[in-house]
Amino acid sequence: MKESVMGKPHVLVIPFPTQGHVMPLMELSHSLIDCGFVVTFVNTDFNHRRIVESIRQNDCQDRRIRLVSIPDGMAPGDDRNDLAKLCDTMLSVMPCLLEELILKINHDSNDDDKITFVIADQSIGWALEVAEKMGIRRAAFWPAAGCLLALLFHIPKLIESGIISANGIPIENQMIKLSPEMPAMNTAHFVWLCIGDPATQLSIYNTILRNNKAVKHADYLLCNSFYELEPSVLTLVPNLKPLGPLLGSSRFAHLWPQDSTCLSWLDQQPPRSVIYIAFGSLTILDKRQFDELALGLELSGHRFLWVIRPDLTNGLATGYPDGFEARVADRGMMICWAPQKEVLAHPSVTCFLTHCGWNSTMEGLSMGVPFLCWPYFADQFLNKSYICDIWKVGLGFNPDENGIISKEEINKKVKQIVGDEEIRVRALKLKETAMNSVSEGGSSLKNFEDFVEAMKC
């Protein structure tokens, strides 16, 4: 298709409204803009305000993407970390609002600027249904491990095999593998069972079933992974097209303003001397566990950069252990949010203590940094299995009898990971593989180029 004749193709992109879902779709959107597309990016009103404020504070100059928003149906004071309530409320109000938005954009546009394609997060299958209803071509985007998507698509067989009930409850706790090359999965850690109370888990499970049905009507199925990372997944989900790694940048995707002063601090540290600690956007630590982590970092004697969101301790005052700040002042830095890709790429960083969210996993892999794994919920337990058991580029922690990861355990694993050259060599090899996948002739770049050409037809 010649753009001079037909105009630029116009794509509407809509993520599930959490940081880990917004970021990779924003990166994909900018890649499409670089290929000559017009992109309208739809956030919820709540996230839109946060992103606009983050853009203002970070002085982001890139204005090529069209940011718009619609309400999520939640009241201003509602807890948007209550994922079951968020999913149910979004389903009740957002489909009609999305349809109205598309109709308005197309009504106000000339023929060359109408929306001709929708890319929707697989976690909001209703957006794919809206696109189908309006006769618009569509792609589902999966922002997590391909292995997890294979598990979700496998639910009917899990029921048929007597592994789970029709409501998603394991008949018995056991370890299963979907294929020999994939991580062993604990049925008690299936993603829908790692979120909230039983009512929340059932709601999430039903949402998954609805999304599985909706995605069958997508024209394309994309994900943020790469063939070489999860080769067996493509046997189980043959129509899945990996485009990753889609790595976070400073462009429009952050719900918190980034503190870039940490990069200057890192410049002053010796090579491979700093532990980077970040738990993503949803992890909550209780005060006792927070204190143990602080004391464990102190006990290790290592330099560290620690990202501490304002809500990391669930709204409780994040007071440090007595005297902690003074004792670590010459070797520790604590900030609210970091430019993570740049931090992980910095030569002073020696390892990444992470919640094992998929974006963080992809960024750590792509920078060749060994992992210390501290999964919190959802898919993070599966990602930890990949990191520790399949790729062998990280270590996990062993909680005590009270479920607490002690300062002694933290100190022990820090020393172990820093001194393990075999893990570091494997991590650097995986970095090379990741970068090759998005370079000329790489598997993910070819998938992206094929997708771009298909969208222009």
From TrEMBL:
Coiled-coil zones: none
Protein name stated in the entry: Glycosyltransferase
Alphabetic keyword roster: Transferase
SUPFAM superfamilies membership: UDP-Glycosyltransferase/glycogen phosphorylase
High-level lineage: Eukaryota, Viridiplantae, Streptophyta, Embryophyta, Tracheophyta
Family membership: Belongs to the UDP-glycosyltransferase family.
Single annotated GO MF: quercetin 3-O-glucosyltransferase activity
InterPro entries: UDP_glucos_trans
Organism of origin: Tetracentron sinense (Spur-leaf)
Keyword Zinc-finger on entry: no
Keyword Transferase belongs to the record: yes
